[in-house]
Amino acid sequence: MDERRQQFTVGVLVFGMMLVAGLLILMNSDFSWSPWREQYQLQVMVSQAPGVAPDTPVRRRGILIGRVAEVQDTDDGALITINIDHGKHVKTNEVARIQTSLIGDAVIEFSPTSSPAGAQVVQPGGPPLHGMYNPSPLDLIANLQGDLKQTIISLGSAGEEVAQLANQVNAVMGDQDVERISRLIASLEEASNNFASVMANADEVLGDEAFKTQLKEGLRQFPSVVSDAKEILQVLEIAVRSADENLKNLQGLTGPLGERGPEIVDSIESGVDNLSELLGETALLAKSLNRKDGTVGKLIHDDELYQKLVGTVTQASSAISDVRMTINDPEIQRRIRQILYNVWVFTDKVARDPARVARGIVPRNREVPLK
User: How many angstroms separate the CA atoms of 95 and 117, rounded?
Assistant: First the structure.
């Protein structure tokens, strides 16, 4: 009886443990093995994929979104086929990174590399996505082995050089150089005393309140001095730039002058010859004008002819004045206006009736013969 009860208790305990184990498995399982679970595939191309195998977890920002279905070795690298759960997605601004732990377990993590603005969901069937492998600490240590070895060798060489330097110092610092070292220490002590004296003198100078005030004023004006110096340098820079431009312009002027030098010299010589000829003709004209037997010479040198010319000009001026006075007379102006009015009336009548002119020539009582 007791044995059956004990067997029953053991059976209940085993059944309970199996039930708890099943519940724990169900709670921690992702049900990727379920045949009715809907998934789609994406492909990732990486240069190397250590530790990646089927069922390797694939995460996006730390959240499980699928598992690796297949890993293929190609000439361009490792082509990884991933099963993504329905409802999960990867965007174009994200890149796949392969990370491995110290024990060799790998995981594929999709993390963003740029702003999500404008990013689109990656659709299945497209070209393989770009991925990369993040070296693990063990890889870094393996890569550093050569550097560590070289560093240790360098440290050994440095230790040997330090030992040689210590031997040389011991050889120099022997018993024979004790007196020299004593003199050196005495010189250092004297130099420190001199330095203390100099600092005391400097403290006396810098401790003066008037000097401090002047020094503060000078330091206060120093920014304005620097600003003035900057302005002067800017003006000098502008002047130098202007001088450079002037030199360039002068070079552009002297260049064509140098190229056309012979033509310019010939033109100048021709101009000088023409000027000389013009001056000669001018001198000849002046000589002709100065001759007394010429027309202009007689006008200049003959007083009688000059007086006659002056008289003629005077009479002409007087006649013009008389005419002006006559014209300015109101009675004459009235008569001139009357005459002009009569002429205007006559011409207007002629323009209106040209036959009136013929009637004025032929008498009205003259009979016209009949033909």
Answer: 16
